[in-house]
Design a protein that fits this description.
single chain, TATA-Binding Protein, nine-stranded mixed beta sheet, binds S-adenosylmethionine, EC 2.1.1.77, PCMT, Protein-L-isoaspartate O-methyltransferase
C-alpha cells in the first residue's frame, strides 16, 4: 500500500464509502462527512478482521480495502468463535455520533475502545475523548492505531467500563459502543448537568441505542435513538435481572414449524420497519427475543420464546407467523396478536418509544434498566 496507484485506489474507495454513507442520510451533521473522509479506517484494522466464516482477512488480501471501505461491521477478535471486539458498522457509528452532538471541545467518555476508529472520528470532530476497554491487547492496538493516525491526544485506558472514569469526570457525553443490559449509575454521576449517555441497551434480543439522562425530578429517562445490534459487554454491565427478555437463541435451530399464519406484507418490511415491529412486540411481551428463522439459513428475527425452551413463534419480515413446538398454536396466536396490535396502533417507529428506568441487577453493582415504556405522541 505504498505506490501512487494504491494511494489513488484508497482515496477512490474512501470517496465512494463517504458517498454511500451520505446517500444513507447519516452524514448531515456539519463536519461528519469530512471526518469519515479524513480518518483512514484501514489504520485501525491493521491486523485484519474475521469474515462470517471466521476466516481472517489481512491487509495484503485483495478483499481487505473494499471491505474496510464498506458499510459493514468488521470483527477483529474472536474468543471460542464468539466476536469479542470489532469496528462497528460505519452508518451506525455516524448515527450515534450525530445523536451525541459532540461540539468542538466536548468531553466524551467512550466505553468500548475496540479498534479506536470511533474515537478517532470523534476526535477529528474536535471532541476531547477518553476511551475505555476491558481487554489489554485491544487497548494496546487502539492506542497504537490512534498514534499512527496522528491522534495521540485521545486517551485510551484499560478498565471495566462499569466504573466509568471518575478521575476524568465530568463528561459532557458518555457513548457506549458495546451492548449492555443496563446503564451504569457511575456514567450518569460523571455527566455534566446537561449531559447524557448514549447506550445500546438490551431489549428483545437486540441492543437499541437509548439516550439516557437524569431528569430534574430525579428520575432516569431514556428515548430510543435507533434500533441496533451490538456484541455483549463483559462484567456487571451484562447482569441478568428479573423481567429481562430471554437471551437470544443463537446456538440452535428451532424445531420445524407446525402452525403457519400467512404473510400480510408484499413486499416484506425493510430492515428498519421490521425492527420497529420487533421493538414494539418486545415492549408488549417480555417473551420476545431473537431466534434463527426457520428455513432462512442463518438469518434470525423476532421470536416469542416459550419459557420451557421447547417451542416458539416467529414473525417473519412479510408478517407471516410460524409456530413450533408442543404449544405451537398458542405461541403463534400470541405472536399474531402482537403483529396485529402494531398494525392497529399505526405501526409506530422504534424512535417514538420513551422509557423510565429503574435500578436492577447485582445490588453491589446495580444498573439502570428500562422499566416502563410509553410513546411520545
Ligand atoms: C464493538 S467493539 C467497540 C468498537 C469501537 N468503538 C471501534 O470504534 O472500533 C466493543 C468493545 O467493547 C469492549 N468491552 C466489552 N465489555 C466491556 C466493558 N465491560 N468495559 C469496557 N469495554 C468493554 C470489548 O473489549 C470491545 O473491544
Amino acid at each position: 500500500m505504498t505506490g501512487r496507484s494504491d494511494v489513488g485506489a484508497v482515496a477512490d474507495l474512501r470517496h465512494r464509502y463517504v458517498e454511500q454513507l451520505r446517500r444513507a442520510g447519516v452524514l448531515d451533521r456539519p463536519g461528519l462527512a469530512e471526518a469519515f473522509a479524513h480518518v483512514p479506517r484501514e489504520l485501525f484494522l491493521a491486523d485484519g478482521f474475521h469474515g462470517r466464516d471466521g476466516a481472517r482477512t489481512t491487509a495484503t488480501d485483495p478483499a481487505f480495502l473494499p471491505a474496510v471501505y464498506s458499510d459493514e461491521a468488521l470483527v477483529t477478535k474472536l474468543r471460542d468463535g464468539t466476536p469479542v471486539s470489532s469496528s462497528s458498522q460505519p452508518s451506525l457509528m455516524a448515527t450515534m455520533i450525530d445523536a451525541l452532538d459532540p461540539v468542538p471541545g466536548a468531553r466524551v467518555l467512550e466505553i468500548g475502545a475496540g479498534t479506536g476508529y470511533n474515537a478517532a472520528l470523534l476526535a477529528t470532530l474536535g471532541a476531547v475523548v477518553t476511551s475505555l476497554d476491558v481487554q489489554p491487547d485491544v487497548v494496546a492496538r487502539a492506542g497504537a492505531a490512534l498514534t499512527r493516525a496522528g491522534l495521540d491526544r485521545v486517551r485510551v485506558r484499560l478498565a471495566d467500563g462499569y466504573l466509568g472514569d471518575p478521575a476524568g469526570a465530568p463528561y459532557d457525553r458518555v457513548v457506549v459502543t458495546v451492548g449492555v443490559a443496563g446503564i451504569s449509575p457511575h456514567w450518569l454521576d460523571q455527566l455534566t448537568p446537561d449531559g447524557f449517555a448514549l447506550v445500546p441497551t438490551a431489549h428483545a434480543g437486540n441492543h437499541p441505542v437509548l439516550a439516557v439522562r437524569w431528569g430534574r425530578d430525579g428520575r432516569v429517562t431514556g428515548r430510543v435513538v435507533t434500533p441496533a445490534g451490538f456484541m455483549t459487554a463483559a462484567g456487571p454491565l451484562s447482569a441478568r435481572y428479573p423481567g429481562a427478555h430471554p437471551e437470544p437463541l443463537r446456538d440452535r435451530a428451532l424445531p420445524e414449524p407446525t402452525v403457519r399464519h400467512p404473510a400480510v406484507w408484499q413486499p416484506a418490511l425493510g430492515v428498519h420497519r421490521y425492527h420497529d415491529l420487533w421493538f414494539a412486540a418486545g415492549v408488549w411481551d417480555r417473551r420476545i427475543s431473537y431466534a434463527p428463522l426457520p428455513g432462512a439459513g442463518a438469518a434470525g428475527g423476532c421470536a416469542l420464546l416459550g419459557a420451557a425452551g421447547d417451542g416458539a413463534a416467529v414473525i417473519t419480515t412479510d408478517g407471516a407467523v410460524l409456530g413450533c413446538g408442543p404449544q405451537a398454536g398458542r405461541y403463534a396466536d400470541d405472536a399474531l396478536a402482537l403483529r396485529d396490535r402494531w398494525i392497529a396502533e399505526g405501526d409506530p417507529r422504534a424512535e417514538r418509544w420513551r422509557t423510565e428506568l429503574t435500578l436492577a441487577g447485582d445490588p453491589e453493582q446495580p444498573i439502570w434498566v428500562p422499566h416502563r415504556w410509553y410513546r411520545a405522541d
